[in-house]
């Protein structure tokens, strides 16, 4: 009799354990979802995509799309600073670094786009790119060098105007 009870209680105990582990898994994946914040590097990869799209929008003289990409760059960088107020060895707060490097070049680009001025767009685009790199150098990430895109990787989006 004893030999029968022992294995049965083992089965019951392991069923209980499996149940607990299952519930635990569910809770932690919910928590992970709630707490998920992309890393600063992820925000930056997104920023780099928008930076490239901005170039092709400007080259196509698609001013509404260019204005949109500048706005998205601004918002994405603000989120990067909001979710990463500090980062690794960097001493300065990320939001102030972003404001110091990005606010002026982004505002200048907005002006060039509003004026539909292709030459001012190119000049200010290059200044923005240089400002990305100056923040990288200041934060000891100078090995991340941003340049103008030479070919468009986003073949699933139309950059020319539909007008
Ligand atoms: C706070 C100043 C700052 C500004 C402004 C900034 N970056 Fe960064 N960037 C960083 C830091 C810090 C990292 C490294 C993050 C990490 O630890 O992964 C980075 C990383 C990157 C990377 C590498 C990401 C990867 O996955 O390979 C790219 C690309 C990048 N930035 C593009 C840009 C572009 C484009 C701009 C301008 C529109 C820009 N960054 C503006 C600080 C900045």
From TrEMBL:
InterPro entries (UniProt xref): Cyt_c/b562
KW Signal (keyword) present: yes
Keyword Disulfide bond belongs to the record: no
UniProt GO MF annotations: electron transfer activity; heme binding; iron ion binding
Record SUPFAM superfamilies: Cytochromes
Biological process annotations from GO: electron transport chain
Protein name: Cytochrome C
Signal peptide extent: 1-23
């Amino acid at each position: 009799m004893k030999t029968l009870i022992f294995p049965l209680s083992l089965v019951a105990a392991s069923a209980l354990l499996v149940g607990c582990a299952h519930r635990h898994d569910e809770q932690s994946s919910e928590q992970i979802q709630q707490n998920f914040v992309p890393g600063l590097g992820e925000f930056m990869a997104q920023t780099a995509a928008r930076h490239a799209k901005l170039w092709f929008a400007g080259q196509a003289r698609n001013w509404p799309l260019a204005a949109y990409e500048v706005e998205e760059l601004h918002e994405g960088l603000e989120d990067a600073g909001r979710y990463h107020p500090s980062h690794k060895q960097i001493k300065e707060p990320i939001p102030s670094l972003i404001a110091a490097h990005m606010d002026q070049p982004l505002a200048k680009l907005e002006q060039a786009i509003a004026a539909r001025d292709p030459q001012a767009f190119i000049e200010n685009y290059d200044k923005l790119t240089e400002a990305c790199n100056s923040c990288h150098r200041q934060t000891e990430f100078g090995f991340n060098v941003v340049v103008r895109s030479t070919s468009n990787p986003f073949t699933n989006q139309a950059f020319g105007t539909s007008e």
